[in-house]
Amino acid sequence: MKDNQTLKVIANNYSEQATSIRNCFVIKVKSDEFDAKVPITIAKGITIGMSQADLETILSEDGYEKDDSSTLYVIYIVTPVENTLDRYTIAVRKANSKVCKIEMEYTPQYSTFLN
Q1: Which residues pair with 31 in a beta bridge?
Q2: Nearest-CA neighbor of 52 among 36, 33, 76, 29?
Q3: Do the beta carbons of residue 96 and residue 74 sit within 8 Å?
Q4: Is the terminal CB of the chain with fewer CB neighbours within 10 Å at N or C?
Q5: How far apart are alpha carbons 3 and 97 in whole angstroms?
Q6: In terms of DSSP bridges, do strands 98-106 and 86-93 run parallel, antiparallel, or are they unpaired?
Q7: Which long-range contacts (CB under 8 A, 24 or more apart) does 98-101 make?
Q8: How many CB atoms lie within 10 A of CB 36?
Q9: How far apart are CA 19 and CA 25, in angstroms?
């Protein structure tokens, strides 16, 4: 938390020893219109508050999965081809067609750090 703004992250300690958060690897970052008032921008300029039309234009270049089964949100899941361990989940509020939540995930295996 800084200046009354919160950014949620999940970190993993890949060491066999206890360590401070400073030495851990962030594997998930979440930002949404309510909990995290920290404006973040991910790949290709995707950010909270952008229109659904602009989001789909950007995502159409790389492809995505779309789930609109919720009554409140349309969920977009993007898994970049070059690294299947990366994943972006983007929620658009149906009421206003604006991006309201972004989650980024990177979950490498422990063996990745042994080389």
Answers
A1: 102
A2: 76
A3: no
A4: C
A5: 29
A6: antiparallel
A7: 98/49, 98/50, 98/51, 98/52, 99/46, 99/47, 99/48, 99/49, 99/50, 99/51, 99/52, 99/55, 100/32, 100/33, 100/48, 100/73, 101/30, 101/31, 101/32, 101/33, 101/48, 101/73
A8: 19
A9: 11
- Alpha-carbon distance 93 to 36, whole Å? 16
Q: Could you tell me if 99 and 90 are in contact, meaning their C-beta atoms sit under 8 angstroms apart?
A: yes
Q: In 3D, which of 33, 27, 28 has the Cα closest to residue 14? A: 27
Whole-number pLDDT of residue 11: 81
Beta bridge partners of 11: 26
Q: What is the C-alpha end-to-end distance of the chain, expressed in Å?
A: 34
Q: What is the pLDDT along the chain (115 residues), one digit of tens a residue?
A: 667 666 777 788 878 889 888 888 777 777 776 655 567 788 888 988 899 999 999 998 877 899 999 999 999 998 876 655 678 899 999 999 999 988 888 776 666 555 5
